[in-house]
Amino acid sequence: MEGAFFVGRSELLAWVNDLLQLNYTKIEQMASGAAHCQLMDALLGPGKVPLQRVKFDARLEYEFIQNFKILQRVFTQNGIEKHIEVEKLVKAKYQDNLEFTQWMKRYIDVHGGVNPEMYDALARRRNAGSKRGAPATNRPRADEGTATATQVRRAPAAASRPAAASRPAASRPAARRQPEVSNEKVQALEGQVAELNEATAELRLTVDGLEKERDFYFNKLREIEIICQTSEESPFLERVQNILYQTEGDFVIQNEEAEAEAEA
Fold first, then answer.
1. How many CA atoms within 13 Å lie on the side-chain side of 243?
2. pLDDT tens across 93-107, in order?
3. Hey, what's the torsion of the CAs at 223, 226, 228, 232, to 10 degrees?
4. Which residue ranges of the chain lie beneath pLDDT 50?
5. What is the pTM of this model?
């Protein structure tokens, strides 16, 4: 067994937290798949992993699955022959996530490793273009709490202003205030739009693939039908034609008849 598979939980967590600037305390937190996606981003470089689609604040199992699907696609596109056992990992079981994280560390180490000083994990998550790019387990930044303090300082000033004398509503029209939209909200919305556009493109590709597969099998069945119609009649061809022209209802009836005969 290779050396990385003897790496313990504490060392793995320290490695992940140091490289990705996180505060993970349990190996089970790797079950969301988000950290694994960013580990590959750190190794492969920008443009290889679509971080804007990774759900860094994933809490539900279907979100975990989506993250691991992204990771599996990255593996495939970069020639990494590793099948991810998604069904096991998303259950957040200790042993399954420990072994997969050990494999990830081994793979990254073998391929040159990543220097934490050369990879700004927080910036990469922020540049993903969405608030969802900032997990709750980020290390606290020095500027946290500034907005709250500013609001507290402004509150007394607002309260000390004398209330304007009430005037009849008809004396002047009420001024319509334009809603303020911060750059942060704009960037978040743009990120969501980009994410939806990518998801739509992916669904279109899936539909196109299914339609091609449907047409492929339809053409095969049509060729078989032509052979049956142009060949001499035989019990075998008759059975093939019966199968070709079978409807869903006929299939159910035949199954019931076969079961009755077996019981008899």
1. 10
2. 999 999 999 999 999
3. -130
4. 1, 3, 130, 132-133, 136, 141-160, 162-170
5. 0.52
